[in-house]
Amino acid sequence: MTMKSFCLTLSAFFVALGTLTAGLFYIPVGVSKCFPMQSLINCLAGVLIGPKKAAIVAFLIALLRNLLGTGSLLAFPGSIVGAYLAGMFFTRTKKEGASLLGEMIGTGLVAALIASFMSTYLMGKTVPFYFFVIPFGMSALGGALLAGLIMKSPLMTAVKKRLEK
């Protein structure tokens, strides 16, 4: 299997996992649905396939979740920004822990700010910024902690070795 097809297969796996688990586990908070699995996927994708591809995976998951009725418009900023920053932090530092921090900043702060604007201007519900920080931040923290555990597993080590070839 070539590197390109391996990355494509891994991306498809992440999209399928994110889409299928969306209806099973989320935390409803106001107008948002907090989804720790998305943060977990964002961190892993950011490390394994890079920031741009991780953002594309996050966009596809958000799109499918919205089409299937298991997500809201807030899934877009909540996932894409976190995925991109998780990948970018890892790319710059080559430290897996940095991807977790990138996810928490991207989803917990930056995406919360974007979600506040989206809620007001696209959804017609005026919601202050801090309303999104706690649920988005908790979702990002939970997913990042799970990702940190998975990154220490033998499976993750094997996947990273395959990607290094």
Describe the structure in brief.
The chain is mostly helical. 79% of the residues lie in helices and 4% in strands. Strands 1-2 form a two-stranded antiparallel ribbon.
How much helix, percentage-wise, in residues?
A: over 70%
CATH C-level:
Mainly Alpha
Number of structural domains: 1
The assigned structural class equals mainly alpha
From the 3D coordinates, which CATH architecture would you assign?
Orthogonal Bundle
List segments where confidence is low: pLDDT < 50 over at least 5 consecutive residues.
none
Largest sheet: 2 strands, antiparallel
CATH topology: Arp2/3 complex 21 kDa subunit ARPC3
**First-last Cα distance:** 11 Å
Quote the average pLDDT.
88
Number of strands: 2
Q: State which percent range the strand residues make up.
A: under 5%
Shape: globular
Oligomer kind? single chain
What's the helix-strand series?
Answer: HEEHHHHHH
Q: What's the arrangement of strands in the largest beta sheet? A: 1-2
Protein name: Protein ThiW
Pfam families: ThiW
Transmembrane segments: 56-86, 98-123, 129-151
Keywords: Membrane, Transmembrane, Transmembrane helix
